[in-house]
């Protein structure tokens, strides 16, 4: 009698391989170098793409099923939140300025990440890496969409949410996140994955998400909190992709080590500069605070990142040199950035304010070595002036760092009373920097960074006014013209929170929701 | 009384405590499951329940969807057993694993040898043969402390039949090893269970093998080497064996003889603290330094098996990676504890 031998069940790994890499093919009538033209010029040597370990094993059909249910749950919560006027349940309308910052400064980055991963998902010669990048590209697109949908609710009631993609391309401080991602996307495929997949998603992502998502939870913002949880279940996948990629590159050839080390040095510093906006938000913008920036930094970078770099040392990777300066800056960063936003509060697409007495006490407690000594006197002086009717709005455009594009407002690492300026001359032109590290990044790739689109320089060159505006007309107000160009309404979207339309409306609506008219 | 958890595709079965999570049990048994957040949010540790009931615990609605719960998925970090359960996890199959079931044995101590000033060789005649894979360990009941047992690697080859050998270093202040060194005598009856562990030779990979041992960590590599040579393994085998000084180096003459008798076996002893004037002509320094010198800092194409104190293991891993041998080809006897799963540890490496 014939016995049917039962076929052994395929393992998850075998099934995944069959449905992904197994579908790839070798080219026959075009050489590989022409099919993957960007794979070689960064100098990364890969000998065997089969050694790529799939960081996760998620196929399209499973992905669709999984994400559709997730989306249904998220939108049910967003609907319930908006129908029950959930926006009136946040701690204070002031909180929403943190969310404006998120919508204009973070959400577009999700979309940039989508584009970047879609791009490298085409460019890697290895099918395993291509599939992983493609999956992340879809995730990033979903994140951008769900964030826009979650936050659109606020646009019905509050100012500043009305034109975020337009602002992202024009508002001065938003060139910081924008240029960060453009730097990554215009690098080669390996640098992109090290910069975004590893440095940003793995080393720094908690410092971005914890402040905003926990901040939302602490401040009654259910919509933001829910998309945060929804996104977090994808982030683990993104982190493992970043880690797998760095291991793979380092194991393939010893010559890859110095290249990867330079990228890690560069992108750790670029990331930390980018996060200085989050530092200010965390310490100054949340009515109900989660933890201080310094505390978050110590947990998520010094502790978790320290453990990572200890393991990476086995490959010969060392902690980036900039870590020493970062450790010195953690006591100063948020205060210097918030002071800058307060200065330029006439040109921000959100409201600014001075910390009140209780908030300053909290800051003094969290920053015992620096706040009372260096920053409290400044805020108190501005408060005094504002009370006398001299609210200080800085009308001089600042000098920007050629690399990170942040105004040169940071102090010398060892002297918090002295602004740090660095400069270098390249082909007869002088370029300015906020720090040694930004200068080194420029000097390593000057041809790239001389092309930087710096908002201040562009304003002075007359490139930031609407078409048809005549800067030579009598009484021309350049700052007003720039605001118009950014589609910001002066007196409504900018200036102090105190006395704003947002503040008035919130109080009135909240009153109506509690009392009979 | 807890339930039994069987993990596919390994086919290994574990006994779980009532409130123990699936992830915790697997990690403690040396079975690495993908995991990250450890509290039900990130979904990295998702596994398929093939049979039985689990409680999903605090698994988030976004990390473990309703349809997945219907399909029998669960998050290992939160799942607790409600019956005997079989799961299928995303782990690589081990073609060389024999998955020998654990059972209890009674035995009599046949002799005890003082191998070095700190290590004793304990030979036990069991009531029946113990089937095990070279490299595995047993849990020996410490008769003086009811309920206490200690794990010891089997130092003899699996072909030894009813007699097994354990090499036990006296850990100063350690209750288990103090009992072995001070109270255990030939003729005493003992109880043990086994075989345990996933430290065995991956012969199917067909690669030259490097064994790195320190102190009484020699047990597993010795069992592996005796077994491989007895079965006529043709791959080049190298034993790098580190001890502090000549008196702590045991079975030295046996390995010298084996190396003379087998062209594919080389023996590299290294002493880190041997008096300068002694007649030792071998390598002076640590085991990882001896290995680097022996292989000219290039371990590519090999597999390495490490056994010894944590500091030595760490130094050896660093040396191997410096010589471009990576995680997939490095095997250690590593135990994860619940504390490992909680502490700040980077997920860069899975098993080393």
Explained architecture:
The complex is a heterodimer of chains A (about 525) and B (about 350). With about 525 residues, chain A is mainly alpha-helical. Chain A has a domain at about 60-345: Ribonucleotide Reductase, subunit A (Orthogonal Bundle), CATH 1.10.620. Helix content of chain A is about 60%, strand content about 5%. Chain A has helices spanning about 10-20, 30-35, 60-85, 95-105, 105-125, 125-155, 165-170, 175-185, 190-220, 220-250, 255-285, 295-310, 325-330, 335-345, 355-365, 370-385, 435-445, 445-450, 455-460, 480-485, 500-515; strands spanning about 410, 415-420, 420-425, 430-435. In chain A, the strands form two sheets. Chain A has a two-stranded antiparallel ribbon. Chain A has a two-stranded antiparallel ribbon with strand order 3-4. In chain A, helix 5 packs antiparallel against helix 6 (about 125-155), helix 9 packs antiparallel against helix 10 and helix 11 (about 255-285) packs across helix 14 (about 335-345). Chain A is globular, with a radius of gyration of 25 Å. The mean pLDDT of chain A is about 90. Chain B is α/β, with parallel strands linked by helices. Chain B has three domains: about 5-90, Ubiquitin-like (UB roll) (Roll), CATH 3.10.20.30; about 105-195, Elongation Factor Tu (Ef-tu), domain 3; about 205-335, Nucleotide-binding domain of ferredoxin-NADP reductase (FNR) module (Rossmann fold, 3-Layer(aba) Sandwich). Chain B contains eight helices and 19 strands. In chain B, strands 11-10-13-8-9-12 form a six-stranded antiparallel β-sheet, with helices on one face. In chain B, helix 5 links the parallel strand 15 and strand 16. In chain B, helix 6 (about 285-295) runs parallel beside helix 7 (about 310-320). The radius of gyration of chain B is 22 Å and the shape is globular. The two termini of chain B are about 35 Å apart. In chain B, about 45% of the residues are buried. Mean pLDDT of chain B is about 90; it is low at about 335-340. The chains are: A mainly alpha (about 525), B alpha/beta (about 350).
